[in-house]
Amino acid sequence: MSKKVLEISHQQWQLHTPFVIARSSRTATDTVTVKLHQEGVFGIGECVPTKRYGESVASVVAQLHEIRDLIESGISRQQLQQQLTPGAARNALDCALWDLEAKLQGIRVSDLLQCQEPHAISTVQTISIGTPEEMGQAAKKLKDFPMLKVKLNQEDIYQRMCAVHENAPNAKLLIDANESWTFDTLTSALAQLKDLPVCMIEQPFPQGEDHLLSDLSSTIPIGADESCHHAGDIDYLKQYYDVVNIKLDKCGGLTEALNIVKAAKAAKLQVMVGCMVGSSLSMAPALFVAMHADYIDLDGSTMLCEDAAYGLNYQNGIIDSLPPALWGGIVK
């Protein structure tokens, strides 16, 4: 078998609307793409370096260059799990290896996984932090979506949620606090929001303060995002959370994401699949996690002014299929 050739590139994508969460605001997003060339085909994977986890484009590219010789001499997905820590660099490479393996065999990743192709995947659409009026107007445009994800900080929680609900009365609402709340904020919010269709609250407290949830009584499920990175976290998280949010950029690719799904199900935790703000190429491998998920948040590419070639097709929150030309094998 011929040697692999590694190609690394960086892209910056402009957002059509500023993306505002509790800890940051952005108008563009940076991705790193890995291509592995072999026998006339290539496997491809994309990642989104995240400052919250100490990553940058430069750090991700450096990680990949450090193991270039191992990659090009034929590193397996299993060996990769030991060579790189969970994170964006491992994600891009892991997904490229899945894609390449399928293409070399002339099959789909779904064949490798012995599952159906992703079809009619229902995803949330995210509403960024703004004034109650701004968030209400954003919700009005999304009123036909079955579920909306609402970004919040500690300010105007009730007013913002009421504005969203009034403008999208049939949508379930998923709150994402991005580690910005205190215990008092959470208990107050639970009391205020009891009559709204809130289906889950994601990562209310900073990572490391998860134990505060042991004193909480809530009829609304609480989810771990920033606190959940790999399958080894599940035994700890199951003490405090009802849901774990799996993101390929956090856990380091589809291989570990599927390990987390298995561990979470065994622990009787619900599963959410999420994303960073990237192109459809970042979303594509996560569709195979979405097939096992109770909550799906794969709307990152809808925030871009322009998407990757052969991007996913979204209709009112439904992703119809995974285009073969985007990712997932069979091109030979």
CATH topology of the largest domain: TIM Barrel
What's the CATH architecture name of the largest domain? Alpha-Beta Barrel
Average of the residue pLDDT scores: 97
- The CA-CA distance between the termini, in Å, is 15 Å
| Percentage of residues assigned to helices | 25-40%
Class inferred from helices and paired strands:
alpha/beta
Strand content: 15-25%
Largest sheet: 8 strands, parallel
What would you say this structure looks like, in words?
The chain is an alpha/beta fold and 332 residues long. The protein folds into 2 domains: 5-113, Enolase-like, N-terminal domain (Enolase-like, domain 1); 119-321, Enolase-like C-terminal domain (TIM Barrel), CATH 3.20.20.120. 33% of the residues lie in helices and 24% in strands. The protein has 12 helices and 14 strands. It has helices at residues 57-66, 68-72, 77-83, 88-105, 109-113, 132-141, 157-167, 183-192, 234-237, 248-251, 254-266, 280-290, and strands spanning 5-21, 24-38, 41-47, 119-122, 125-127, 147-151, 172-176, 198-202, 222-224, 243-246, 270-273, 295-296, 314-315, 318-321. Strands 5-6-7-8-9-10-11-12 form an 8-stranded parallel beta sheet. A 3-stranded antiparallel beta sheet has the order 1-2-3. Strands 4-14-13 form a 3-stranded antiparallel beta sheet, with no helix packed on it. Strand 11 (270-273), helix 12 and strand 12 (295-296) form a beta-alpha-beta unit. Helix 6 runs parallel beside helix 7. The two termini are 15 Å apart. The model has no long low-confidence stretch (mean pLDDT 97).
